[in-house]
Amino acid sequence: MRISRNSKRLFALFTAFLLIFSNFSYALAVETTNTDTYSVLAETDFEDGDAWGFSPGGGAEAVVTADEAGNQYLRATGAGSGERSITKTLAESTNNSEVLFTFDWKPETVSTELNSSQVQFNDINGNPIFRIVKAGGTDGEIKYGVGTTGTDLSNDTAVTGISTDGSWLTVEVLFDFNNESVSLSMKDKADETASFSAADIDLSTINYVNQIAEVSIDGNRAGGNNLSFVTGLDNVTIHGSAEPAPAQGEQNIVSIVSAFETAFTVPKNVAKEDVISFFPSAVDVQLENDVVVEVGVGWDSVDYDPAANGTYTFTGVLNTEDVPNVTNGNDIKSEVTVTVAEAGGMPEIGGYEGVYYSDFGDVVEVVPVNWGFTTAAATLSINKEDVAGNTTPKLQYSIASIRWPCGNEDL
């Protein structure tokens, strides 16, 4: 069959287009941030054997070790039945409008699917701004999250197109505080075409200070699971722009969004501090930018009389002193109504004199809380639901996991 000249031209153009497009895709895959306008704030390649200030907490280790080729890197490990953390506190917190972290990351397998390990960036108050996460289990997913920490990865976003088998990855995390965003790029060191990038990830949905003070390598342990993780870190550089970080304005509280009981009935002669123990010590509030944060509450009543039956109002004043960039210019407060009433009578038993008695809340609240019962590694509460036909309030003891003395395993 004879091919026309026009067909040949079309074929040549199509082939050229494919070659150009494939090279363009490769260029995108290996593109890195231009650092010409940045200055180096700190850097290390661990070749001097120094851990660069990464300080391990209990149950964790951070040692500089060499791979098969003799390259030295930081090897962070953690194991046991609690959270594990290795933290680097920067000599000076960043105060730049743009901050770029570049490093090589080797997220190896984390024990059990419910556990995870992470590299996290915290502000000057220790609040999480951004993290990259290695989920637990064989070839567990890699994810990233804004303002998140711990074992709950449901709000984090999956990273695709890169290896999850514990290979070395090259990572860039660029904070742009002018635009309140962060950009992330990752690629396999062994194959730069295996890459991922996400630009302009929104930071305006969290409350934070735009100064980074800590970088931590953490192991997150889910309840009932023993934790074991290994993370490698190498070739860390922190760049900063010449422009300082912008001033952050305060956000007003517009409402209290936490749900809590607002009415209680107590017996006579209950001290004010014991009444206040029923109220929340902190509540979630919504700010005018729709961000939700937790603030403390201080409770008081100006006329509470524990010896007199009646109804009293307790007012909760929101404490924003320890919450950055938050103010209560609208003077939002919380209120709880407390009724002082006669308690239910103690049942009489022939031949015995009553000394102590509680119906656990049939008529009035149980005072002190849970009638003074305490426990460790479990939860006590007053259950007012129907349990096997018992519809009256009763003391409930619950536990999520049991530890047997056999090999330190949680069941």
Q: Could you describe the 3D structure shown?
A:
With 411 residues, this protein is mainly β. It has three domains: 31-241, Jelly Rolls, CATH 2.60.120; 251-341, Immunoglobulins (Immunoglobulin-like, Sandwich), CATH 2.60.40; 358-411, no CATH class. The protein contains two helices and 24 strands. The strands form four sheets. Strands 1, 3, 4, 6, 11, 12, 13 and 15 form an eight-stranded antiparallel sheet that branches. A hairpin with a 6-residue loop joins strand 12 and strand 13 (195-202). The termini are far apart. Residues 10-30 and 402-411 have low confidence and may be disordered.
Biggest sheet record: 8 strands, antiparallel
- Principal-axis shape equals elongated
> How large, in whole angstroms, is the Cα Rg?
29 Å
User: What structural class should be given to the helix and strand makeup?
Assistant: mainly beta
The CATH level-2 architecture of the largest domain is identified as: Sandwich
For the record, the count of structural domains works out to 3
Could you tell me the mean pLDDT? 88
Low-confidence stretches: 10-30, 402-411
Helix content: under 10%
H and E order: HEEEEEEEEEEEEEEEEEHEEEEEEE
How far apart are the first and last residues' alpha carbons, in Å?
74 Å
Our estimate of the beta-strand percent is: 35-45%
Please identify the top-level CATH class of the largest domain: Mainly Beta
Q: What is the CATH topology assignment of the largest domain?
A: Jelly Rolls
Count of helical stretches: 2
Tally of DSSP β-strands: 24
